[in-house]
TrEMBL record:
<protein>
    <submittedName>
        <fullName>Universal stress protein UspA</fullName>
    </submittedName>
</protein>
<dbReference type="InterPro" id="IPR014729">
    <property type="entry name" value="Rossmann-like_a/b/a_fold"/>
</dbReference>
<dbReference type="Pfam" id="PF00582">
    <property type="entry name" value="Usp"/>
</dbReference>
<feature type="domain" description="UspA">
    <location>
        <begin position="1"/>
        <end position="139"/>
    </location>
</feature>
<dbReference type="InterPro" id="IPR006016">
    <property type="entry name" value="UspA"/>
</dbReference>
Length: 139
């Protein structure tokens, strides 16, 4: 049913997304699908890396490790953005097409105070609204 699953990740938030990561792995195993871990970053230093090239290396290492540990095919893609807060949804929608993904598994949004107060919009909801493929939102 599914052949290629896109999994947006933030390497600085991996500890907050075990349900999302485990769900993606379980679905990939069930359907013998590959996982493509994707992240969107600014060209300026961030919490996970000093520059996009370093982030690409770290994401590739993470994807390879996940593939070896869980016995699934994985790869990774880093997308650069001028302003991730503004362009994140568009970049993820572009990544869906660029990678040929037929399913997205993602967290609804980064957990935190905004989650409790319902102040932050959900990137997951935007992807659901504008994507042509199925989207599995993990809370």
């Amino acid at each position: 049913m599914y052949k290629r699953i896109l999994v947006p990740v933030d390497l600085s938030q991996l500890g907050n997304m075990p349900k999302t990561l485990n769900t993606a792995i379980d679905v990939a195993k069930h359907y013998q699908a590959s996982l493509c871990y994707v992240t969107v970053t600014n060209s300026t230093p961030g919490a996970a890396a000093h520059n996009p090239e370093e982030l690409a290396e770290k994401l590739a290492e993470f994807a390879e490790e996940q593939g070896q540990v869980h016995g699934i095919q994985t790869d990774s893609k880093v997308l650069e953005s001028v302003d991730t807060a503004v362009e994140l949804d568009k970049k993820l929608l572009d990544a869906i097409k660029d990678t040929g993904s037929d399913l997205v598994i993602m967290a609804s949004h980064a957990p935190g105070l905004g989650d409790k107060l319902h102040l932050l919009r959900s990137n997951g909801a935007e992807i659901v609204k504008h994507s042509d493929i199925s989207v599995f939102i993990v809370r």
